Amino acid sequence: MAFPKGFLWGGATAANQYEGAWNVDGKGASIDDHIRGGDGIHGIPRQIDEVWDPDALYPSWEATDFYHHYEEDIALFAEMGWNVFRMSINL
Fold this sequence. Notes:
two-stranded parallel sheet, 3 helices, alpha+beta
C-alpha cells in the first residue's frame, strides 16, 4: 500500500505536557500548573494544590521545555521528515 501524493506526515503536542516555562514572560499560572505529578504504578495520586508546595513535583512547570528549545525541536521534526506540526499554546 502506498500513501497518496501530498500525504502529510507530522505530529501534535499538548501545551501542558510539552511547553514548560510556566512563569516566563508574563504567562499566568494555569490549572495544570497547580497539579502535582502522580504515579499510576505505585498508587501516588495526582493532586491539585491551591498554594504550591516547594517540595512537590509539578510536571507542567518544565515539561520538555519546548518554550526554550522550539528551534531545535522543530529542526528535529524536519529531520524526521515531518511536513506538518500542530501545537497547542497554554495562555
